[in-house]
Design brief:
The chain is mainly α. The chain has helices spanning 6-32, 35-41, 45-66, 80-86, 91-119, 124-128, 140-159, 169-182; strands spanning 71-72, 75-76.
């Protein structure tokens, strides 16, 4: 039995769901917008590029926040660390959660410099040197969310019962529709 409440568990799962939702929206833009097609077919290619940057930065920030320390400046953060430290898990569950945390931290380590120097602050040296921060291998984000799904399923099952699917079919469908409208593939009918 876990020491964290069902309310805390659901709030944490909701934070993971939100990170997943904004990731799905960003990936839909990235996977479906072709630079050449944008330049040829639409009148506002720059705003789409800006939207892609905005969604990318926001996704990275949401992921980074999930990895904040459980306690910071005498305040609790609802994070992966919090769930592990204060969950009161049995040894088997704790071992599984720590193994998943280790896998999740692989992407965290890649994006941490971006969070610390650009997403949360305007680091002068980074800006002046046009440094690229937060790069990671193609599809490392997909692997991250597959592992986050496993993490969420374990804690939800132990505290409430059953899995907690990080589903975003509506976000995915809406984002694809927006891309299709912008690209002129479909027209909105009102």
């Amino acid at each position: 039995m876990s020491a964290i409440s069902s309310t805390i568990t659901l709030k944490f799962c909701g934070l993971c769901q939100w990170a997943h939702t904004v990731w799905v929206i960003h990936r839909t833009f990235e996977d479906n917008l072709n630079e050449e097609a944008i330049r040829k077919r639409i009148r506002c290619p720059y705003v789409l590029n800006d939207m892609s940057t905005i969604t990318q930065e926001y996704v990275l920030l949401q992921i980074a926040k999930l990895h904040d320390p459980a306690v910071q400046n005498d305040r609790n953060n609802l994070t992966i660390d919090y769930v592990i430290r204060f969950g009161g898990w049995d040894n088997g569950t704790l071992s599984k959660l720590r193994a998943l945390e280790s896998k999740l931290n692989e992407l965290r380590q890649k994006i941490k410099p971006a969070r610390n120097k650009i997403l949360s602050h305007n680091d002068l040296e980074t800006i002046l040197n046009n440094m690229v921060l937060g790069d990671f291998a193609k599809d490392a984000d997909k692997e991250y969310f597959e592992n986050l799904q496993k993490f969420v399923d374990i804690i939800h099952d132990k505290v409430i019962g059953g899995p907690y699917p990080l589903e975003d079919s509506m976000a995915n469908n809406d984002a694809k529709t927006l891309v299709d409208v912008v690209m002129g593939r479909i027209a909105l009918l009102y």
